[in-house]
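Lab manual, section 2.4: Encoding a predicted structure.

Procedure: take the sequence of the chain (212 residues), apply the prediction step described in section 2.3, and record the output as structure tokens. A sample record is shown.
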Amino acid sequence: MKHICLIISLLFSILSIKGQQVNNVNTKILDEEIEITYDLNDYDDNYYSINLTVLNGNRILAYREKSNSLIFGDIGNGIISGDQRKIYWKVLDDDVELVGDNIVFEISASLIQQKSLANFILPGRYDYLIDDKKTKLLKSVIFYTTIIGGIYFGELSSSNYQHYNNATELEEIQNYYSKANISLQHSYLCYSVSGTIMIDNLYRMFRRNKSK
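Recorded output:
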């Protein structure tokens, strides 16, 4: 009975677009799934965050913004522009009743900014916005940790070098010289790691996007 109500509702549903980037929204029933297709227009191949809202008049029946086992495909973060983007929804297994006189399927697209100050000062943020994986933000933690480490070891090397210059005994001279060199190497290593992270971050900010 639920399946029959779903079919009737879809036959009288309205397909809605939110944002100029989305058009040609269509729905089709495949076994016990709904296939929702749409075109995401953008000649610059940007990534978008795609949300689906189902309404009956002004009442929201369902709102989906992330992919999971029940709704998947081109929904959520990191959806690149192009034609015939598809969302598959196991609506009969989901806890939602799509029954009403004025059912509306609304697709909204929000641009994920690639070149931004926030993405520059927080390496890994852009990857996080695309993949929605918090581990991507570890790049920012490592980046600033290694910068702090570089400054710390650099100051330590400078201090040991001052002691080396002021030392009068051979053992002290050798000891402070060794400490200054080791600290300096650690400083260079930290800066190399942070520099590599920033170069990779800039590459990802300015490269041409491609489908994941």
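Check your result against the sample. Residues 170-206 form the longest helix (37 residues).
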